[in-house]
Amino acid sequence: MATVISKKRKFVADGVFYAELNELLTRELSEDGYSGVEVRVTPMRTEIIIRATRTQSVLGEKGRRIRELTSVVQKRFNFKEGSVELYAEKVANRGLCAVAQAESLRYKLLGAVPVRRACYGVLRFIMEQGAKGCEVIVSGKLRAQRAKAMKFRDGYMISSGGPVKEYIDTAVRHVLLRQGVLGIKVKIMLDWDPSGKNGPKTPMPDAVKVNQPKEEEELAGKPFVGKEPTM
Known about the structure:
Blueprint: H1 7-28, E1 34-41, E2 46-52, H2 55-59, H3 64-76, E3 84-90, H4 98-110, H5 115-128, E4 133-140, E5 148-155, H6 163-167, E6 168-177, E7 180-189
Helix pairs in contact: 4-5
């Protein structure tokens, strides 16, 4: 018999489950281009879809790694045997995924690449992949002892209103360097895509479409001007 739980408690429990699962997968799969997770609950089982740029690394040799992750999730969250299933899904365009780009920038900085060079490289790659705009912020002790923030922007970016929920993809990551912790924030503004593959289907509310005027039809004969002929 299923336990009765109030709606408020259910939403909180679902949010805590998603947050903990996301944290686990972020730490475990950061090197494999982890880009987010989606949880689908069906009457038969719970499906967890892991989005990553390198799905083969997520699956592991003969699917060994994904089975290990399934076992960890099942034991940690007290799922019944066979009631939870993990799948790996490849990210269609990693240049338009803020999480993938934030991780990419993180590994560049860990590899001692200069901050300005690393940020401009990520910025250029995002814009080449078809983004409408992007912003990269790196803050912390960059060169001197004094902490500061560097912002890199390109293209068009919105910051308020309803379209932010659909058009803006944001990711925050931390880099543990010898001199201290650096914070990375990547914001990508997607372009409108009617197919819904590389961007949201709904157009921007301020987008105005001007239709071409229709061609005027010519009349069959010219109108008679003047007096009618008398019989």
